[in-house]
Design goal:
The protein is about 25% helix and about 20% strand. By secondary structure, it is α+β, with helices and mostly antiparallel strands. An eight-stranded antiparallel β-sheet has the order 8-9-10-11-19-16-15-14, with helices on one face. Helix 4 (about 125-140) packs parallel to helix 6 (about 175-185). It is globular.
Length: about 650
Amino acid sequence: MPAPYFSLPPTDRVRSPLTGWTRAHWEALADRQLDALLPYATPGFAQYRLPGRASWSGVVSDGLEGFARTFLLASFRIAGAGGGADEPGSSALSHLIERYTEGLTTGTDRDSGEAWPALTDCSQQMVEAASIAIGLHETRPWIWDRLDTRVQERVVDWFSGFVGGRTWDNNWRLFQVVSEQFLASVGAPHSQSDIEGGLDRIEDWYVGDGWYTDGDGRNFDYYIGWAMHLYPLLWARMAGPDGDGGRGKVYRERLGRFLGTYPRFFGGDGAPVHQGRSLTYRFAATAPVWMGALADCTPLAPGLTRRLASGAARHFVERGVPDERGLLPLGWYDTFLPSTQAYSGPASPYWASKGFLGLLLPADHPVWTERELPLPVEQSEPSGHYTALPAPGWLLHGTPHDGIVRLINHGSDHNPLEGPATDDPHYAKLAYSTATAPESAPHAWARTVDNHLALLAADGTPSRRRRIHPLTCEGRRASSRHHAQLPGTEEEFPIESTSVLNGPWELRVHRVQAPAGITVREGGHAVAGTTRPHAEQGPGWALTVTESGLTSAVVALHGWDEETGIAREVEANAHGPHSATPYLRATRHPGGATSHVTLVALTRDVVHPQALRESITCVVDDDGQVRITFPDGETVTV
């Protein structure tokens, strides 16, 4: 693994036997990012105009984003060190306080030439204001309380754009909640109905077992942790126990339930499962874990909390994040724009600052002092770890011997409940993992081979998996239905898919309604790296292997042709410039209903697909019932 681009403290393998990281590593990582911003600051420090693709909101909004999101990081660093009074590097922290104080002063001065855009309905400024509100609350003794009265009035005037304003009807409601609660905390005019209305609205999105959906629909991703759980508890922290109306207790109970399974989303190498939008926020995936400790509602042992968070941070640091400039690029490891969205600007990745929430916990807190404990995927379980999450419609499947976690998706599509639907590669796939990423560049997404069951038009254009209708999710099995529409036609064809987990494998059973003559195709996981993956094919099977030994394989058990294929792409995958996906095909569909059964493998083991095919028995009855017997003797019926 290459060395990080900056110096880190010595590792501590006694306290942190799994990652070697301590609080000092987190402070060093925070300081490196904050120091690296200086060349990109405007003269009055109100904006940080970082290099990279601009967002759709424009350069001034992007500059505000650079201030707000890094101020969140700075606030955790400042407050966590008590303002730096007793900190060895107190001079640096004093400069940090001065720098962001000057930025607040300049940004709210309409005549400064660096003024922040006004808060208008549904504007990007609303997102950034929430970070500033949290930062001001956490650093109040060192920044807000020391501001000149006129500057305080200007800050209040800027935040007042929220009062009575309209936000998008999703996690954005919470930006208004925390920002107006900040106004309330400093005795400024605000709308209590705005605050209560936003908190009431998220009740409509709570679906049980600790899970929210981010707005109407089936919107399950990391926003549930770094937004839907995080902001209500930060609001409760601002409001105080006497001002939260009992809501704080509810939010703590919900986060506790959510965290009960959350460590299962992280691989043995620290990587989070690569699913959902805004993945360029990286470290932010650890925010709910730190929040659980901060709000004293976590079911996780302190050593597990730190192991998860430090493992995730170390995962990115060892892969060149921050980069040689000390910046967080738009991407996953290095710059990769297909894993971002049009709203993402050069400073968008600094929502990663939420992942540093743990610095608010004192240095003698058990999360910093107790010995690290292993993640679930690091704990011995010969057949692997299986977790069913009915609320989002997911199965999690971790294998200790290679540290890979796979997410089987039968429930999250990021579409509205009604009306037109889309198919985002970060939501529409049948599976995701900690070791792979979907093929998400436009040229690859047009072909959409990986982890997708498609009906192919005559020209090879695939059908799409847009709105997903979950059917079951329990034990080691989940199923869903979607309607495939062939390009150029209005007719839709139902496809029902079931996933069954066994050992390191996923068994997929598809019941397909299709017109006669078309081709059905199914792809496995896309694997990627800096070099072209090796590929092998045989009768009814195909596999691809990266230079590091990560193997993706598909094995035909029923309903497929003997001829298979490999789909190769360049610059299409967040894990590397060269990627490849094995796939199966069934040509000349007879029309009506057919069954297709596939064994899917993603592993660091050596795979012998022909031997697997010969050792697994698959029988399909005339009525479509499928019975599969695995090499260990287990029989499943679908």
